[in-house]
Specification:
- The structure is a homotetramer.
- By secondary structure, chain A is an alpha+beta fold.
- Helix content of chain A is about 20%, strand content about 35%.
- Chain A has 3 helices and 6 strands.
- Chain A has a 6-stranded antiparallel β-sheet.
- The interface of A and C includes residues 78, 81, 103 and 136 of A.
- β3 of chain A pairs antiparallel with β3 of chain B, so a sheet runs across the interface.
């Protein structure tokens, strides 16, 4: 990358920024990201529990970051499955690892934790996700890169 | 339901409202929902293509609406898989149907369309999703219902 | 293909043959396959209901046949999800369609039916499956083609 | 269980026996199972690589065994996703753990290994699977228990 690290790059993705996802780390097929749970993320009109879409968006983002950190190219998600293990009522933290790094697609495992300090303190596993991302054949112009100077990103 | 229809109920879910999801219809195990694509939904810093988390959040929401319309109870998602078929660069519209309505869980199929008028005009299938929702055993109090007068909702 | 049609080709796959899967049709991204339910397929020591692995093997096989019919190359499964909708207590029939045919991977939808004449008569949907198959980059030699004269197959 | 341990019970499941799956261990939500790869399991007419359905059948079986070991009831699979990480050209060994044990459904993680001694020696991870099983509401008679003396099994 030219003068910008990968974690910083993700701050420029509108939805990642809008949701409040912070990609903390992304290197060598491993990535971590945090999200402070806010009232707007809730699935409950009268309380605070993360909507499934919030947890998923975090998982998809950190999974993509893991892939991009290994392949240094735009990596659209082909499919992802998420399993919710317990309600997420606190801040979220997610860790992702590339488990199969093929030429054209990569498989990624994600675990999402919640808790008062879900990065390394008291934390509960609230969801696991597994997905496949495209790692080649995106060509020079894609809907994900139009208007972006990709050459200088990686 | 007591004086509020189900589609209206979803407007009160903070993340559904925040993201701009409009549940248009929800009855008898079938639901439809729309989302106008906005700049904040984008996955591309220099253009407009829906982040995977946006498409997923729409799918999860409309899937849940289909289940709730049949079971008239809170229905947390247990798992969901989404497959992205083409980039979503326009407004989104999703349709969901319960395909297996068991006593304790329901299976739902969702199709997400995009286009200038994705509800009934020119539209392209951009994603399919399939998930399983819990339909019983939520008990009287859950993170999804704390503070909500569930008795009077259904 | 040189002198052998695709459906016939699958009869030579040991596990497909051993399980009794009959690929009936495979062309232009669509495939159909049948399986007569036998006592050895059962999941119940005292009765006859297809083990989940039998239904899955049929789904995976017919999905692969749909992909191969479009791409004319070996197409290993990358991932597949199956949802069981009702117990399969009679003969099975499966239909598969490629829903996204990318350069490096294809997404496939499969529906599995059961009934006394599940091909076109009285039938019930017992499972749906969705998977992603690799369509390029297999190279000249793979574990799936060692010992096979691929050049002359397609 | 009355006089028969759980691992032994699975030997009586026709398809498990027919395929050669050996449930080695099943207790407290954890299970392990082995499968010696044979020519009939192959996906390649000219060589030996496990058909995706073989690996899946092992994963589904060991996942079910993990659930049954915790719930002591028949546990039909609701859905399962499998991701293939590398070709399985040797004997298989699978380990499963219940990751979410709810009242009505349980979520299970499975890892499938291959190698000359995949149980504890030289082994490679060839697939991961994740599924949801039904753990209640099966009633007294089901297609999975007709003809079986369930009362005396557990």
């Amino acid at each position: 990358m030219a003068g910008m690290d990968l974690a910083e790059l993700f701050e420029h993705v509108p939805f990642v920024d809008d949701l409040g996802i912070d990609v903390v780390e992304a290197a060598d097929g491993h990535a971590e990201a945090a999200l402070e749970l806010e009232a707007t993320h809730s699935s409950n009109p009268g309380g605070l529990v993360a909507h499934g879409g919030v947890t998923y968006a975090l998982a998809d983002t950190v999974g993509g970051a893991a892939v991009v950190s290994e392949y240094e190219t735009v990596a659209p998600t082909i499919d992802m499955r998420i399993d919710y293990l317990s309600p997420a009522t606190d801040d979220l933290y997610a860790e992702a690892d590339v488990t199969r790094g093929g030429e054209s697609v990569a498989t990624v495992d994600v675990t999402v934790y919640s808790g008062p300090d879900p990065a390394d303190g008291e934390r509960e596993r609230v969801a696991t996700a597994r997905g496949v991302y495209k790692t080649s054949g995106q060509g020079e112009r894609t809907p994900w890169t139009d208007g972006v100077d990709v050459e200088n990103l990686f």
